[in-house]
Amino acid sequence: AQSVTQPDIHITVSEGASLELRCNYSYGATPYLFWYVQSPGQGLQLLLKYFSGDTLVQGIKGFEAEFKRSQSSFNLRKPSVHWSDAAEYFCAVVGSILTGGGNKLTFGTGTQLKVEL
Amino acid sequence: ETGVTQTPRHLVMGMTNKKSLKCEQHLGHNAMYWYKQSAKKPLELMFVYSLEERVENNSVPSRFSPECPNSSHLFLHLHTLQPEDSALYLCASSQGPGWETQYFGPGTRLLVL
Predict the structure, then answer these.
(1) Closest residue, chain B, to A50 (C-alpha)
(2) For labelling alongside A24, which of A48, A55, A81, B16 has CA 20 to 30 A away?
(3) Which residues 59-88 of B have a C-beta within 8 angstroms of A?
(4) Least CB–CB distance from B103: residue in A4, A46, A104
């Protein structure tokens, strides 16, 4: 079965500093990978996704992520963090298609980002 | 209204109550999902519906009963819940039952007393 590990539970960065959030996955085949962001009291918003092709993917709000098959990683990066980026970030992988359909997202436990002004 | 909406946003109920959560998607999608988000735990997939047919029941207790009357609406009926069922319940939808991206609603924060 697929799994996702986000090793950092909390990260604090200063506004304007660069950011990298780590994500490692375990999946037997080529994975479909996602990063979502959740602000307090809100649902999950898709930041970016990787299905195939270029291993560096661009997302919304200035985020990007790089798929590295050799390291089973899909780390999220942003060159300059803004105070409004403070939120919880979730990495997810799509597992095998279920019998009869439906795609099964497996999420990591999330990384809480705090931005210091 | 656009996207995925959920009502109510907050719900407090006793263990003997019966309540329902509602989800509506305005994206023309054919697949809908219920997830449970508890503190310090990964999101847990509860149910998947594709074209109004349930395709996944992820070992969820029978006190949770989903209903999908059409491709735009999804309900989660709750009865005789336990305090450990307190969580954020998230609804999502996707274009189809394959690899498509899932779009999430804002969630219903449930507290069981």
Answers:
(1) B101
(2) A81
(3) none
(4) A46
Chain B, 3 to 42: residues with Cβ < 8 Å from chain A are: 4, 6, 31, 33, 40-42
Alpha-carbon span B55 to B97, nearest angstrom: 9
> Chains A, B: CB contacts under 8 A, how many?
73
Q: How confident is the model over B22-52, as pLDDT tens digits?
A: 999 999 999 999 999 998 788 888 998 888 8
A85: tokens are: 């980026």
pLDDT digits (tens, 9 = 90+) for A39-87: 987 889 999 999 888 899 999 999 999 999 999 999 999 999 999 999 9
pLDDT digits (tens, 9 = 90+) for A83-93: 999 999 999 98
